[in-house]
Specification:
The complex is a heterodimer of chains A (121) and B (107). Chain A contains no helices and 11 strands. Chain A has strands at residues 3-7, 11-12, 18-25, 34-39, 45-51, 58-60, 68-73, 78-83, 92-100, 107-111, 115-119. Chain B is mostly beta strands and 107 residues long. In chain B, a hairpin with a 2-residue loop joins strand 7 (62-67) and strand 8 (70-75). The chains are: A mainly beta (121), B mainly beta (107).
Chain lengths: 121, 107
C-alpha cells in the first residue's frame, strides 16, 4: 500500500526545536520530489518546503527560510523537517506530501495524515 | 507571490445539486492549477491537476476548467461524501500557494 506516515510533532516552547519525520512506503521514494505542507487550526493550507528526489535541491517559503531545513534519506525512505527557532505562528498540522506533475513546482499526489506541532509557552 | 482567491468561501447545497467553485490567480499561471478535497479531520485528497485533468479514481462528476487567471471546479449530482472543503493550488512558480478554501455544506 502506498503510504506516508508522519511523526515527531509535539508541544514545544517558542524558540525551541523539533524534527519531523515522514516514512514512505509502497513506492519508489527516491524517484519523487517531496514536500511539507502545513495547516494552522481552522485555516487553509500553506506550502512550507520541498526537496528534489536526490535531495540536492531544496525550496522554502519565505517565513521559514533560515529556520527550517528539509532533508531526506533515500536509503531509509524517509523525509525530514528540522524546525529551529520555532514561533507561535508555526503551530499547525504538518503534512508530508508526494510531489506529482511533470516539473517543479509540483502539485501533490499523495498526502500523509499529518503530525501536530504546537508552539506555546 | 501569486495570490489565489477562491469564491465563495462557503456554500450550501443539496444532494443531487450541481455546484461550481471559482479560483482566481493574481497573475497568469497557465494551467498549473490543482484542486483538492479535504473532509473533516482528514488529509487533503488530490482531485484535479493541470486545471482539468482528473486524478485516477476520482468520479467523473468532478470537472475542472480554466487557464490563465480564472479557474472553476464543478461538481455535478452532489453525493453525501462530497460535502467537504475544497482547495485550489497554483504550481506555476515558487512559492507554491493555495486558495483559502471553500466549505461545501449540506443544505
Amino acid at each position: 500500500e502506498v503510504q506516508l506516515l508522519e511523526s515527531g510533532g509535539d508541544l514545544v516552547q517558542p524558540g525551541g526545536s523539533l524534527r519531523l519525520s515522514c516514512a514512505a512506503s509502497g513506492f519508489a521514494f527516491s524517484h519523487y520530489a517531496m514536500s511539507w505542507v502545513r495547516q494552522a487550526p481552522g485555516k487553509g493550507l500553506e506550502w512550507v518546503s520541498g526537496v528534489s528526489g536526490y535531495g540536492d535541491i531544496t525550496y522554502y517559503t519565505e517565513s521559514v527560510k533560515g529556520r527550517f531545513t528539509i532533508s531526506r534519506d533515500n536509503s531509509k525512505n524517509t523525509l525530514y523537517l528540522q524546525m529551529d527557532s520555532l514561533r507561535d505562528d508555526d503551530t499547525a498540522l504538518y503534512y508530508c506530501a508526494q510531489d506529482g506533475g511533470r516539473r517543479p513546482p509540483h502539485m501533490f499526489d499523495l498526502w500523509g495524515q499529518g503530525t501536530l506541532v504546537t508552539v506555546s509557552s | 507571490d501569486i495570490q489565489m482567491t477562491q469564491s465563495p468561501s462557503s456554500l450550501s447545497a443539496s444532494v443531487g445539486d450541481t455546484v461550481t467553485i471559482t479560483c482566481r490567480a493574481s497573475q497568469p499561471i497557465g494551467n498549473w492549477l490543482a484542486w483538492y478535497q479535504q473532509r473533516p479531520e482528514k488529509a487533503p485528497k488530490s482531485l484535479i491537476y493541470e486545471a482539468s485533468s482528473l486524478q485516477t479514481g476520482v468520479p467523473s462528476r468532478f470537472s475542472g476548467s480554466g487557464s490563465g487567471t480564472d479557474f472553476t471546479l464543478a461538481i455535478s449530482s452532489l453525493q453525501p461524501e462530497d460535502f467537504a472543503t475544497y482547495h485550489c493550488q497554483q504550481y506555476h512558480s515558487y512559492p507554491i500557494t493555495f486558495g483559502q478554501g471553500t466549505r461545501l455544506e449540506i443544505k
